[in-house]
Design brief:
200 residues, alpha+beta, Ribosomal Protein S4 Delta 41, Chain A, domain 1, Structural Genomics Hypothetical 15.5 Kd Protein In mrcA-pckA Intergenic Region, Chain A, five-stranded antiparallel sheet, 5 strands, 42% helix
Length: 200
């Protein structure tokens, strides 16, 4: 399946939450109305399966992951001792593109993914261009010197975003201190519904 390249607000309206930060006003204005000419008319109560499917889709779109890769994350999480849903979210939060976003180096996960793909991010001083790279505890994540003066970067750094406690940042260099707790991760996702979806 190809990566979706259409209007991002459309995806947010479909899931009923602002998936990409900037589209919060669109959601507040139009609410959780399914996009399209017959959005309101098509609105009906979802089945249990439908609710689980929508939660899985929302998680995929929040982190910008395609189905095949998302399923691999779930399969790996199901082999970890403890709660599968928690392990899944920790794996998603530990992605390099998400860590860059969480550190406040970019304003969105999509922007973070572009920075990583274009070679603007280093891990422990070495360039890493794979957005799905799993950042480990005590590893440092930094912007490359050539992108530090970028207007988008300066705007992100000036936003004074509150960092979750599992991360620390000094200027343009951040570090993963420990695994995140559930309350420090994405709050819009109900991971138990995703576990139920894949456990059918």
């Amino acid at each position: 399946m190809a990566r979706y390249t259409g209007p991002k607000r459309r995806l947010s309206r479909r899931e009923g939450v602002a998936l990409f930060g900037k589209d919060i006003k669109s959601i507040e204005r139009k609410g959780a109305v399914v996009p399209g000419q017959h959005g309101k008319a098509r609105h009906r109560r979802l089945s249990e399966y439908g609710i689980q499917l929508r939660e899985k889709q929302k998680a995929k779109r929040t982190f910008g992951i395609l189905e095949k890769q998302f399923r691999k994350y779930f399969e790996a999480a199901s082999k970890v001792r403890g709660a599968t849903g928690l392990a899944l979210l920790r794996a998603l939060e530990g992605r390099l593109d998400n860590v860059v976003f969480r550190l406040g180096l970019t304003k969105s996960r999509n922007e973070a993914r572009q920075f990583v793909s274009h070679g603007h991010i280093t891990v422990d001083g070495k360039k890493v261009s794979i957005p799905s790279y799993a950042v480990k505890i005590q590893q440092t994540v930094a912007l490359s010197p050539k992108i530090v003066d970028n207007i988008q970067v300066k705007s992100s750094l000036e936003a004074n975003q509150t960092l979750p406690e599992w991360l620390e940042r000094k200027a343009t260099v951040g570090k993963v201190l420990r695994l995140p707790e559930r309350e420090e991760m994405e709050q819009s996702i109900n991971e138990q519904l995703i576990v139920e979806y894949y456990s059918r």
